[in-house]
Sequence to fold (803 residues):
Amino acid sequence: MQHPVRAILISCTLVVAAGCSGGTIMVAPAGSHPGTGATPKPSATPSATPTPGGAATPSPSPSPTGSAGAVAAQINAAMQGVETYYQGLPHQNLQADLQSTATFAGTQAGFTSAQSQSDGVTATLANGALAYFFADKGLYTTAQGPPTPPTLIQGGSPHEIAFLEYDYRDIGFHPSRQIAFAAAFAPTGYPTATYRAEEGSASLDNVAALRNGGVDVLDISTHGGVYKKPSGAQYILLSTTPVTAANMQKWSADLQAGNLVYGLTLYNPSEYVALATFAFTPAFITSHVTFNPGAIVDNISCFGANPLIATSVQNTLFAANVGMYYGWTKSVLGGDSDDSDAFLLDRTLGEQNPSASGLATYVNQRSPAQRPFSLFETYNQMSQETRNDPLVGSTDNYVTSTALDQQLAAMNMIFPPFADGPVSHFIEMPSPSLAAGAPIPANNIIEYGRPSIAQAEVNEAPTATLTLYGEFPSAQGSLVMSSSESSPAGATPLSITSWSPSTITATIPPEGPAAAGYLYVISAGGVPSNPVPLTQWAGTAQAVRTFTLGSAPFNNTGSGTATIAANFSFHFRADVHPVVGIIDTDAQPQNFFFPNVESDATGTFSTVTGQWHNTSQSQSATISIDSPPLMVPFPSASQGSFNITPNAIDISQLQQDGCNDGVSGLQSGPSNGPFNVFCAGLSFGDSNVLQCTDNVMGNDCGGNPSVNGFGISATVYAINATPFVLDSAYNVSVMPNLPASDGPQQLAQFSSTSSTTETFAISAPVAPPDDMTPAARRRGDKRGFLVNAAPDPSRPSSPMLGR
Fold:
């Protein structure tokens, strides 16, 4: 199945269902049954009128011929009798075993019919109820995991993040992983007061506990199968809720609606017998779970995206606010499904090295850490990157799982898509509205993957405007500047002027705590983005220009010199944190660039002196300063002007001077490289600065003792192609005195040539990037990917167990 891959942020919620048939709930043959599901919660009230969702054909409720307890005992006895028969088979060919089991069940008094299918056995009980026997994909192993007590979830949070796990003695499932996945949210900034992340048993009560509040994340890790019926195929997931009289009564409406069937896993070791439990359909989930709009269902169980049932499953979930659906086409290895889940969470949450949440135990980290990426971008990378994690290392990528065992491979090969053979594919399927580019509704949505800042830019003129590029929720949140790279707590808010899913603009002051630091976008629900440093430098400069004066007007021959000196104080800022082209590529430096200095910059003329003489005619002129106003970057009519800006650069000179000239990354500098070099021009001037007097009624000064005719402007005193060099520690140095590109100028009415000297002093940076700064994606960059980490040698040597 193909799907569009689109680089947008999904503001939405997540449901994850993991696992396949292969394990079981074990009970001793003597009938001493340990607890096999979550103890019913009083608050987890089943639906009185569950909605079938068009996905299941209703099956009759049991019609007791005796007490309710006797009916439950009859169902368990009938189903356990089939498993006991199965355990006595030779177990050389799974399909042959399933056929024999179906034939046996069809002859037993507890059943009216039974049919073998490639992943299990379907049957009708004597009371008309449907039953399903999940195929043994434990691959005939006798290994058993230790028993664990059932765990409950609370539910009821406005942003519920619930991981439900098949957590009883099945070595194909590892509840510790789901616990770690749930624990990944709080360290990345999800506020615990409104976003509750918890893990519990895959029981019906735990599903129903999610009715109140709103579910953002639902991870179901259990056995999945395709139930084939004359009316069509039905997808089912195994719960840990046992078939008892009380549970049959409690869930009778769902049994009647066809949202539940009786389930049991065929398990080989004869020292254990399974206790029948309920298997639930997608319609059961949507009948009992309240999803926040835009939910994402990531069903990493077996067969969740199989062509036989994928459309039905999608339609049922999309009708209940789900915006995205993920699923495996065939049976999937348990390690592969968990590994894909870990990668998806890690890269989308932006939780990388060092891993505060513990996900480094399961998936390789990057340094520096990457920003959060959208689900579309993460999935696209999963389809290209080979598994190479502490959990799994193989030749498969993150969206494929190749059956390694002969029996499991044979099962996969007789399931569509037939061209895929033994390989199961993890498919990403957006809802029709999402595929068409429609925004997810804004109310009560988890910003799954977090708001994500890719880059920041500041244009200082005429009012300083900050622009952020990235992926942001559709509902406007807030933008803050923090002094901390680890938390936005206590940050200073910025005034937002526009907000879209890809761009945010805001005004930003030149001074104070909001002028520089670490930028965070906070969603309306309080979820923070990755921090992006806006780095600031302070500097001073002095420019001294010396003129050799020649002829005056009217061909009066003479000579002299003039000197103009000015001092400047300024700040400038830029986003220079490292970026990556695609997820898991090496971080690259950004071009160092600032369009102009900040508005609080000032400049003053410190010296304006000059003398000109014509000895033969006893003529002379004096040039002096005449109370000039301050020069500022963005002058009014009464102010002088100065700036340090790329606008004055002679473009033809850039490459010979070693400037970046729009080329990404480090370039060879004017002396030694590589450098990250930005070439700017220092320009200054004021039309009211100069005062000229002469002894011939103003003739030598052009007939006016002030500026008229002198041709003084901001471009006269322009020093072009001055390299500002950014080193690896984000310190800036300036290499002045390159050849000026503006050439000799005319000072007043005197022909002249000129030379310029300049000195700069730049302070240490405020809020420079460091090794902890999350690297961002450069917009439009298309670099390849790179994987360096090796598999953990401590992982089990046999990754073949299916679910």
Remarks:
- The CA atoms of residues 20 and 223 lie 4 Å apart.
- The chain has a mean pLDDT of 76.
